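User: Okay, second chain of the day. Same drill as before: sequence in, C-alpha cells out.
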Amino acid sequence: MSFWLIMFPLLSALLGWLFTWLAIKFVFLPGFLNKLLGPSTHGGLIRQTKFSNTAAEIFNQQPGIFDQIEQKMLDPSHLHKIMPEIEQHIDHFLRVKLKDAMPMVAMFVGDKTITQMKEVFMVEMNELFPMIMKSYLTKLKTGINLEDLIAKKLVSVPPAKIESLLLKTFRKEFRYVVGAGALLGLILGTLQIIISLFASS
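Assistant: Same drill. C-alpha cells below.
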C-alpha cells in the first residue's frame, strides 16, 4: 500500500477537524474571524442583536414573570429586613431634622414623645409601605417594556465577554463536536480507500 493511501484517511481526519473547528468559530465565535479577516467583516450566524431580541422575547413570554417579581418585592420578609433602616431614618428626622426645621416645636418634644411618635410612624409604615409598593409596581408594569429593556441590556454586553462565556460553558461540547468531525473525516477517508482498492482489483 502506497504512502499516500495510508496518509489519505489521516488527511481526511485533519480536514474534518479543521472544518468543524472553523464552523464552531464561524457560528458561535465571530470575534475570531473578525480578528482574522478584519473588523466588522463577519458577524457570525448567531448575531448578538437577533439573539438578544429572541432571548428577551422568550423571557417575556414566560407566564407571570412580572407577577413573580412583584411577589418577591412585596414579600413581608423583605419588608422586615429594611424596617430597621427606615426606623433609623425616622429617628434621625424626629431628633435632628425636626428640631432644625421647627425649633419651637422641638422645645416641647422630649425623648418619650419622640419614641411614641416613632412607634406610630412605624405602625403606619408597616401598613402603608406594601400598598405604596403594590401601586408603584402596577404603574411600572403598564409603563415599562420589559422585553425591550432586556434586549437592550443583552445587546450592550461586549461580544468578547459572550464568546468567553460560551467557551467556558461549552468547552467540553465543542471538543466533542470537533472530535466527531475528525472521526467522520477518518471514516470517510478510509471508506474511500477501500472503495478505490475494490474498484481497482
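The mean pLDDT is 75.

User: Thanks, on to the next one.
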